[in-house]
Amino acid sequence: MPEAQLLDPIRILHGSDQPVVEDAVLIRDNHLIAFGAKARIQAQQLGLPPKSASQQLLAPCLVDPHSILEDPISGHCETLASLRHAAAAAGYGQLALLPRSSSWRDRPERLQGFLNPNSDVDIHLWGSFSRDGAGSELSPHADLVQHGAVGLANDDLILPIALLQRGLVLGEMGSAPVLIAPRDEKIQGGGMVREGVETLRAGWAPDPFASETLPLGQLLELHRQHPERSLRLMNLATAPGVAILGSCPSRPMASVCWWHLVTDQSKLDPTELGWRVSPSLGSPRDRAALIKALANGTLTAVAVHAIPLDEEDTQLPPNQLEPGLAGHQLVLPALWQELVVKAGWSVEQLWHALSFGPSKMLNLPEERLTVGSRRWLMFDPDQLWIQDRHSDDAPKAANQPWQGCQLQGRVVACGLRE
User: In sequence order, which residues have a C-beta less than 8 Å from that of residue 189 and are 6 or more positions away?
Assistant: First the structure.
């Protein structure tokens, strides 16, 4: 972006408490200098002519409530530095990483080394609920929270209920969120795609709905018994699951993975990478139910839930391939098309799902546009571009969907240093 420019008019979303307005903004050296009449006056003093950007949107940065980065320093496919770079290019100002790692984040010293004073991309860390993520004994919850953990989580499956109960009763995490996935690995068995007609036709091993609904029922009962704890649900993926959650009188906040909102079993070729995700991909009915639940507030936030894999990993047979996708740069364009263009959502609704809701799940202040800040993104919903995982602004992970496909809508500028 040029050193200074006046964008007038441009659509602006200042924060969750204000609607989108058409106004002017003065940006200099990637800082927001002024809005409205003040922006026009200062630009005139600087001799800056207005530049029309009426089709573009200036908005707060996005927030990813959970993703995975197993080797942040020397990873073959993704490192903390490359992830920060890709996140900033995609408009993500905050990312929270689950504790799964080559050095499992279950003790305070393993939360160190993630701060970078030269970057505006904030990395939050979920501390592990159990030691080594094994689900057999509790980690030091109070120490983890005291030393910077944003909350407690484990992997993307449910822990033993007795251990969860014990941790919630002890309550050493205080008001910090506890993020648990309603997914039972034993019930899922070898299932790779949610049960249904499309699954049988494609020849995939079915994942029964009960692998989500049974652990979900247990977690909702724990939430009822311990309302003083901040329980969160990770990655709901089925129509029966959101129906159960929606009928709960006092329900916990819950996330959904972006991929489950834009595709389903009926939309993928059997050879595509997008089949192997966790939780399992569902049917068109599941996808429609998830979108409806996100619109009515039953679901709180959209997660990227990126799990980067290298080239060698993606060449394995489907039943040996680790589930997961990467690609922060794909999320906003895909959901803009799916939710704003096709489903008629407002910009405000989409930002509640991608920014303000995730902040609530993390118990963190919401992103908003403020004078003097670099925390902003500019999105052009009309720009056409080709998804290329080898581009400079893409993540380094090999398991990015839609390679070589033309997409519409792109973050064209972002003030974040990365």
Answer: 205, 207
Tell which residue, 227, 401, 276, has the closest CA to residue 329. Answer: 401
**Averaged pLDDT for residues 221-229:** 97
CA distance 12 to 54: 10
pLDDT in tens, 307-333: 999 998 888 877 788 899 999 999 999
d(CA 412, CA 407): 14
What would the two tokens of residue 289 be?
């139910």
- Report the alpha-carbon distance of residue 31 to residue 87 in Å, rounded: 18
What's the CA gap between 12 and 27, in Å, rounded? Answer: 13
Sheet holding 31-35, edge to edge: 31-35, 21-28, 4-12, 50-59, 377-386, 406-414
What pLDDT shows up at residue 216? 98
For residue 253, the surrounding DSSP H or E stretch is strand 253-257
Helix axes 161-170, 210-225, angle to 10 degrees: 20
Classify residue 209 as left (phi > 0), alpha (psi -120 to 50) or beta: alpha
Q: Comparing C-alpha atoms, which of 122, 115, 165, 112 is closest to residue 143?
A: 112
> Can you say whether residue 63 is alpha, beta or left, with left for phi > 0 and alpha for psi between -120 and 50 degrees?
beta
pLDDT at 2: 67
Hey, which CATH number is domain 62-361, 3.20.20.140, 3.40.190.80, 3.20.20.60, 3.20.20.70?
3.20.20.140
Instruction: Quickly list DSSP for 130-174.
Output: BGGG-SSSB--HHHHHHTT-SEEE-SSSPPPHHHHHHHHHH-TTT
Residue spans per domain, the chain: 1-59, 62-361
